[in-house]
Amino acid sequence: MPTISVLLPVYNALPDLSRALRSLSAQTFTDFEVIAINDGSTDGSGELLDRYARTDTRFHVFHQPNAGALGKVLNRAAELAQGKYLARQDADDASEPSRLENQVHYLETHPGTGLCGAWTWFIDPVLGPLFSLELPDEDKRLNHYLIQGMNPFVHGSVLLRADVFQKLGGYRGSYAEDFDLWLRMSEKTRLGMCTALGYYYWRSVGGISSGANSRQLALIQLSLKLHSERLRLGHERTDWQNEYQKIMRVPTAEADSAERQTLLHYARGLQLLRRQELDASRTELKLAANGQGIYAQKARRNLSVFWLAPALSIIYRCLESQEPFHFARRLPSGTVLPENLSEK
What we know:
By secondary structure, the protein is an alpha/beta fold. It contains 13 helices and ten strands. The protein has three domains: 4-199, Spore Coat Polysaccharide Biosynthesis Protein SpsA, Chain A (Alpha-Beta Complex), CATH 3.90.550; 208-249; 257-326, no CATH class. It has helices at 14-25, 45-55, 70-80, 99-109, 139-147, 162-167, 177-186, 210-233, 240-249, 257-274, 278-289, 294-304, 309-319, and strands spanning 4-10, 32-39, 59-64, 85-88, 94-95, 113-124, 128-133, 159-161, 190-202, 325-326. Strands 1, 2, 3, 4, 5, 6, 7, 8, 9 and 10 form a ten-stranded mixed sheet that branches.
């Protein structure tokens, strides 16, 4: 039996899937299996998984009709898994070669810890590397972020104990399913963080929908309410399934192209400000200010105090040692970049 089972859900991820698969094959820790669930892909992702499995016997591919819920896909993968530990990996991200080695060592030397995250670089396909999320290995602080409604773990970066996962019944739902699980785990075990770069997380800031964010926030609030009930009463009084369905029935709309473009200019403007590239930052914020939505308003507020920009960029750098989000101009020295990752 392998030490680790990597849970890899795949749905129409062909453009980036090879990057994820190669990053797993390149792991310095080799005693693992990959449980890849092709969740009804129609873009050739399933065929690529099959070809890869023929060249690396640690990869096990299972095909199914689209389940419509990430939690269901992950629970099926966990049922098929044989490892002592369960690792997550998203199909459009990449793992640092030493990720699994570092995380296994962490859990082996911290027997009271059931969940281990890893430091993660957030990368926009257009803007390039944005920032690294580097939280300390402090259970109290990680729990504090959860209670405040903030997720301290990038879902694809975690390694957790299979027995704890099984005792808790696995994932629930399809949105904020990771946040809900982390809260339930925090009631039974210590939470930990491997303080080394372990994961590269691709996310387009221009693809964030305000409607989807509202749904996510509502589900986080539901998870926190249930968490409070379990701590106070020893059980959940609120009907999770009923409340979850109510939230999921609320329609959401994708961000339109103008809103996406505004957000891209705004994010780029802040990125340049942190790099002290003030003229370029002002240009991007002006473009955002002429756009639409809440980020146009934020850009206008930033421009109204832009004379403070030199001081603000210094303050950003001074806060890097204290704040969870460490903004940086460059990736760590010596980092081997996955394919399609370049600094901008």
